[in-house]
């Protein structure tokens, strides 16, 4: 299970649905509604993406990252590539 390292730290991660290792991390920023809409619907969207940020509930993060939150091995293998290691810890 994931746990926020610092619940006050703001960040956004934009993931490609085809390959989540293709991601863009915005450290210190949560997108506004307008920015979110631009990314999802505008010229910036060159494929299927999804966006998670520090304002999303930890349960949503765990659901989306279920494949790597099952065990510590999955976390150790994937956390860095998925942009998670700066913001989360793994707890079994």
Structure in words:
The chain has 92 residues and is an alpha+beta fold. It starts with a strand and ends with a strand. The strands form 2 sheets. The protein has a 3-stranded antiparallel β-sheet with strand order 3-2-4, with no helix packed on it. The protein has 3 helices and 5 strands; from the N terminus they run E-E-E-H-E-H-H-E. The longest helix is centred in the middle third of the chain and has 9 residues. The chain has one domain.
Kindly list the characteristics that best describe this protein.
single chain, 92 residues, alpha+beta, 3-stranded antiparallel β-sheet, two-stranded antiparallel sheet, 3 helices, 24% strand, globular
Mean pLDDT: 90
Major sheet attributes: 3 strands, antiparallel
Query: Given the structure, what is the number of helices?
Result: 3
* Whole-angstrom Rg: 13 Å
- Number of domain modules: 1
The fraction of residues in strands falls at 15-25%
Given as residue ranges, the uncertain stretches (5+ residues, pLDDT < 50) are none
């Amino acid at each position: 299970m994931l746990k926020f390292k610092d619940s006050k730290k703001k960040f956004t991660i934009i993931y490609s649905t085809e390959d989540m290792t293709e991601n863009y991390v915005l450290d210190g920023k949560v997108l506004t509604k307008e920015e979110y809409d631009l990314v999802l619907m505008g010229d910036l969207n060159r494929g299927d993406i999804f966006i998670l940020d520090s304002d999303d509930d930890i349960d949503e993060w765990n659901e989306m990252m279920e494949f790597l939150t099952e065990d510590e091995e999955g976390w150790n293998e994937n956390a860095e590539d998925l942009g998670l290691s700066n913001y989360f810890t793994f707890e079994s």
